[in-house]
Design goal:
mainly alpha, two-stranded antiparallel ribbon, 4 strands
Length: about 475
Amino acid sequence: MQNHQYRDPTRFTEFSTVDTTTIHPLAVMGLVVVLWFVLFGKRRSAVLWATALLCFVPDGQRIVIMGIDFAFLRILALGLGIRVFMRKEISPLRILPMDFVVLLFALWPLMAGISRGTDIPLVRLLGYGADLLLIYLAGRALIRNADDVRHLARGLVFISIPVLFAFTIEKVTGRNFFSIFGGVSSITAVREGKVRVQGAFSHPILAGVWWSAVLPLILVLIWDPRKTNDRMLGWFGVVSCILLVIMSASSTPLVGLGVALMGALVFPYRRYLRPAWIAAVLCAFAIHMVHDLGVHHAVFAKFPGITGSTGYHRYRLIDACMNRVNEWFLVGADTSYHWGWGLDDVTCEYVRACLAGGILQFMALAAIFLMSFWKVGSLMSRAPKSLVIASYALALGVFVHMVCFIAVSYFGQILFLFWINLGALQSVLDSRSRRMVTNEETIVTRPRRPVEDSLRGVEMGRT
């Protein structure tokens, strides 16, 4: 590695609370209340309680015990995992091929780090993988069918109302009152004259991506309303998500929002999405072969109005990753600091996967998306309407994440939304074959009485 001082390596630590116990009394009270409902409340509401806490308490809140960092996200993941095992809610689940891929994705960075002799603490890699697995497991066990998805969508709409109120205040005043918890700046960032609202989220981009990925789930209330006010509630949620994304003033969430809205428009033509996918992949491959600088240059460098002021940085990062395959191919690499000016800022989840675990980690991430979309496509023409709508909405949410991965790497609260979404999608797709139903969907039959049995026998004898 060359010894060039490209940028100050401590520039991202201004509002960081990593490895430092940071607790606010209000945050502790909220955590205790949420954990109570997570552990002892209704199954389908446990995810909503955790989601609400993450939307209003910054990721900076954490407890450090013997060098182990228990951020609120990790505490919630542990609480959800304890609930799933304590209530035996994992027992109805079937083991799916996707489960093995997710297990590989979560644990391989630890094995790869040991193989290359990483400077990253192994306990951090282990904790990160455990968080992903527990959150994914919660999505698999707690959101099982179309009714659960509708319940989740209603809750997300109600959560968006106070978040919209807080975002509006921050947009007008330029002050983020969530800074009292630590982990976020009290002065809202401004870029090119635009206030970039972030609320309790770790970054304005991640705040916008969160609500652009939530929008597909809310569409369930519009496409398949089971109650008279569901459709109106759904439209309100869509408008709320659009306003929240706009107030983040970031290009990546706006692209995610456009993808979500485009996916909503093509929903009536969902049976033809598989050939469209194949055509899009072939077209991208052809552009990459013909274009001198590759398809990534055509996307990021040629469309600055879409990718924002840092689009060229993302092009250079992806290009450097492709040109330095020999550094990360087998077991990844610890840093991209020496790749060039500013390229230690890994603003691409795909590049981050390559650094975390090499080609195997990248292929696992690609397999997660490919397997999800392929299975959804197979249900579009032969599944009940409610199942089709729920699976399509969840898959569209995963697709929004997949697109945003190109321009941002995930940390903080947004990890919860992605892995819950992915786990829920797998359970909903599998609900048809394993006949997993909620109490509301189960037909309750009254046991026969002996008199009724005798009368039925007499009637059968007469016939």
